[in-house]
Structures are given as structure tokens and as C-alpha cells.
Specification:
alpha/beta; Rossmann fold; 2 domains; seven-stranded mixed sheet; three-stranded antiparallel sheet; globular; binds S-adenosylmethionine
Length: about 290
């Protein structure tokens, strides 16, 4: 039987505005999963996306051979099986990313931030919601362009993390559809990618050692880092979280950043009005002073 405690505490009337789309027999299970997902990932679906979430859950349900959402919930409640949470996280998150996304902020990184990094120590850069590695490899390419390959391999360590295991596997494979490379210049494409089948390109193997990929849920605590970072990229993920979680994450990132280090969000995820220890340098760019 479904334990409805979570459902009863947090029942949102808006979830039932679309009753026609969600069968009565699955509504409790849907609400349970909706709240479970929010608690586990921090991701919240606004009312106009509930039917979309339901459809994604139904697809997962079929793939995993559960009879209906009720059976999925029972499995979640009664089995200590890490694969279902991982599948749920994958199914509900938006993994849209592409190479050289938001060129203005990348230009700022290249011109204003790289020169502030201390040459005496290896640079630790974290791409904190890395999707399938587009951001991490973009930064690696920029580092090779700035430093040359040999120095970049010695000087730079880029860690890409994401909540989704399949994203991490794809990042490690480094093979991308050409659509992900539409903002990549022809010369960069030629130099750093090789054709890999129809409309696919793979990142050149010699740049891969700059990047390491690991699975990490930003909502989990503590984060398993021994050393602080010089720069953290946390782009296009904060806006999925509520304000409290956004602040909790950026403040924890502050603690995981070296003095003088940087946080880069996307330009639309502005923390300007939020009370934070980060000093806002320009839109989407923050510094630990
Ligand atoms: C829209 S992509 C952004 C990718 C990249 N940062 C960019 O700007 O192109 C958002 C990523 O955040 C990941 N994500 C969502 N919730 C997360 C969480 N709680 N912890 C870690 N990653 C999460 C998703 O799996 C997805 O790959």
C-alpha cells in the first residue's frame, strides 16, 4: 500500500486541476512521486508542467515494466534499489546543453577570470551540472587555446558532475550530435572534434584527460570534495530549484571555493537580490573576496 503521509502533508490543489489527464487510480501515486522528486533532486515542476511530468513517468514505467505508477511507488518505498531513484532523476531532468553556450560569459571567463588564476598551483574547475559534458569540454578547449596543450594538461583539472548516470556516461564517451556544436566555430570543430558516424562528432582523445566526470546530486550533503575550487560553473540548473535551495547551494559552493575564486551562473540565474556572501562582479559572475 502507498504510504500517503507525504501526499497528505503537501497536497497541492493544482495537481488535480488536470484530472482529465491523470487517471484517478494513479493520482495518489503521481502526487507521491511529484513530492519525492522535489525532495530528492530539488527540482520542482510548475502546475503547467504536471501533465508533462506524468507522461515522462509513464514512459519510465513502461520501460521498467511496472504495471502502473502505484507499483512504481511501492517499489520505491519497499526496495533499497538505487537504480530507480537514478532513473527518476534522469527522466525528470532537462539535460539540454551545447558547446560554447552563452559566449559573453565565456568571453568574460577567458579575458577576465583566467588571468586571475594563480600560475603556481593547478587550477580546479567544477562544472556543477555538467549534463553530458558540453560545458566541461568547452572549458577544456578554451584552456588549451589559452595555455597550449601541454600546459593545459598539467595546469587544469575540470570536474564535471551531474545527478544523472547516463549523462556522466555520455560525457565520458564524448560523442555528440552536430546540433550540440552549432555554436562552435568551424576551426574549433575541425581541431577538437572528429566525425563519428552520421551527424555525430567525438571530442579528440588528447583533450579528455583534462576532464573527469562523476555523478553528484547537488542536494546531497556533504559534497565529497577535499580541495577547494578556483572556479565553479553552475549554469542553467539553479532555476529548477526553489529559492531556499538555490541559496543553500550557492553558499555551500562559496565554502568550496578558494579565496579570490569565482562562481559563474547563467545570465538568467541572477543572485543580485539574494543575501549571499558572494560579491556580484557582473551579470552571472560572482567572486569570493
Ligand atoms: C539544463 S542542464 C545544464 C547543463 C550545463 N550546465 C549548461 O548550462 O549547458 C541541467 C543539468 O542539471 C542536472 N541536474 C538537475 N538536478 C540536479 C541535481 N539536484 N544535482 C545535480 N545535477 C542536477 C540535470 O541532470 C541536467 O543535466
Amino acid at each position: 500500500m502507498i504510504n500517503t503521509n507525504v501526499v497528505e502533508q503537501n497536497l497541492s490543489p493544482s495537481l488535480f486541476n488536470q484530472q482529465g489527464d491523470i487517471p484517478q487510480s494513479e493520482q495518489d501515486a503521481f502526487v507521491y512521486l511529484y513530492h519525492w522528486i522535489g525532495n530528492y533532486t530539488g527540482l520542482h515542476f510548475p502546475p503547467n508542467k504536471h501533465v508533462n511530468l506524468y507522461r515522462r513517468l509513464i514512459c519510465l514505467n513502461q520501460r521498467l515494466n511496472f504495471r502502473d505508477l502505484n507499483e512504481m511507488v511501492l517499489h520505491l518505498q519497499n526496495h533499497d534499489d538505487p537504480s530507480l531513484p537514478a532513473e527518476l532523476a534522469r527522466v525528470i531532468s532537462t539535460n539540454h546543453s551545447f558547446f560554447f553556450r552563452e559566449t559573453a560569459i565565456l568571453g568574460y571567463f577567458r579575458k577576465k577570470i583566467i588571468p586571475t588564476l594563480p600560475v603556481s598551483s593547478p587550477w580546479r574547475i567544477w562544472s556543477a551540472a555538467a549534463a553530458s559534458g558540453e560545458e566541461a569540454y568547452t572549458l577544456a578547449i578554451m584552456m588549451v587555446e589559452e595555455l597550449g596543450l601541454t600546459q593545459a594538461l598539467n595546469q587544469v583539472a575540470i570536474l564535471g558532475t551531474d545527478i544523472s548516470y547516463p549523462m556522466i556516461t555520455q560525457a565520458e564517451d564524448g560523442v555528440y550530435h552536430k546540433q550540440k556544436l552549432e555554436s562552435t566555430s568551424p576551426s574549433t570543430l575541425m581541431h577538437y572534434f572528429k566525425p563519428a558516424g552520421t551527424d555525430q562528432y567525438s571530442i579528440v582523445p588528447w583533450i579528455k584527460p583534462i576532464c573527469t566526470f562523476r555523478r553528484l546530486n547537488l542536494k546531497s550533503s556533504p559534497w565529497p570534495f577535499q580541495n577547494q575550487f578556483h572556479v565553479i560553473f553552475c549554469r542553467n540548473v539553479l532555476y529548477y530549484f526553489d529559492h531556499t535551495l538555490q541559496m543553500e547551494i550557492v553558499e555551500r559552493m562559496y565554502d568550496h571555493t578558494l579565496p579570490g575564486g569565482w562562481l559563474i551562473t547563467s545570465v538568467t540565474e541572477n543572485l543580485k537580490k539574494a543575501p549571499t556572501r558572494w560579491q556580484n562582479v557582473t551579470t552571472g559572475v560572482y567572486r569570493k573576496i
